[in-house]
Design brief:
GO molecular function: 4 iron, 4 sulfur cluster binding; deaminated base DNA N-glycosylase activity; metal ion binding
CATH class: Alpha Beta
Organism: Thermococcus aciditolerans
Keywords: 4Fe-4S, DNA damage, DNA repair, Hydrolase, Iron, Iron-sulfur, Metal-binding
CATH architecture: 3-Layer(aba) Sandwich
Helix content: 40-55%
Protein name: Uracil-DNA glycosylase
Distance between the termini: 29 Å
Order of helices and strands: EEEHHEHHHEEHHEHEHEHH
Structural class: alpha/beta
Number of domains: 1
Number of helices: 11
Number of strands: 9
InterPro entries: UDG_Type-4/5, Uracil-DNA_glycosylase-like, Uracil-DNA_glycosylase-like_sf
Shape: globular
Strand order of the largest sheet: 1-4-5-7-6-8-9
CATH topology: Uracil-DNA Glycosylase, subunit E
Radius of gyration: 17 Å
Strand content: 5-15%
Length: 245
Amino acid sequence: MLLRFKELRKVGGVYINPRNFKVAPLFIRDWRDLVSLDEGTYGVYARTIYNPKQRFLIMDEKDEKIAKELEGLYRELLKDPLRFCREEYHRYQLQVGEFKGLPFANGWAGSGIVLVGEAPGRQGCGKTGICFYRDASGMLLRKTLFTLGLNPDFVYITNVVKCNPPKNRLRGFGEGELELLERELEVVKPKAIFAIGRTAEKALKRLGFEFTHLRHPAWYVRRGLREPNEEILEEYSTIKEAFGE
């Protein structure tokens, strides 16, 4: 579950995880080349540093302590999934997932910046296990952060609901999902939390955390957006401000 920073390789101003590549990329000049990589040629996880076996980036001993506690929470989810996921969601997740295990979270354990999404998407996290990755919403978020000068792999990303709802139709959340999210955030101890979408906003309000609400990238995707425009860049610039940049 742990990914050590020294395992990464910097190419063209971005970091890659060599383990995620079926073949080495011929060239990567910048993040635009990275997000354009063909997964059939390079691998499903080539456009991120994470994969289902390496979900938490660690840079020092403090990060490692946090990551191991998160790993413990993930093991609890695997041991008793129906405690934290609705049965119908869990059953559907097992059908659509193309990896061993369940979606949980991924990112730099010590970043202090947490993005809380709603639930895994059918073509994104539900299939790959990596939050906000591969589907239209996930790639729009990644492009937006890159455009703002932030590497999306260097924040911590999770979801309120851990299993993909059937046909992506999310019907709220239960107490088990709230419990797991609360424990997760208590481990990470974020300095800034961003609620991505209304479901995340409602969950974080219930739990009493301070946060900033942002419209879900799917809101923009439904309006035809595939590349960042001024509106989404202005809205998501609050994440950059949280980094103090």
